[in-house]
Amino acid sequence: MAKQLSTRVAIVGSGPAGLLLGQLLFRAGIDNLILERRPLSRVLARIRAGVLEESTVRVLEEAGVAERLHREGLVHDGIEISVCGERRRIDFATLTGKHVVIYGQTEVTKDLVAAREAAGLPILDEARDVLPVDLESDRPKVLFRRHGEEFELACEIVAGCDGFHGVCRSRIPAERLKTFERVYPFGWLGILAHARPVSDELVYAYSERGFALFSMRSPTVSRLYVQCDPNDPVEAWPDSRVYEELAARVGSDLAARLERAPSVEKSVTQMRSFVAEPMRFGRLVLAGDAAHIVPPTGAKGLNLAAADVAVLARALIAFLREGDARLLDRYSDVALARVWKAERFSWWMTSLLHKFPEGDPFRDRLQRAELEYLFQSEAMQKVLAENYTGLPLALS
Question: Is the pTM of this model over 0.90?
Answer without folding.
Answer: yes
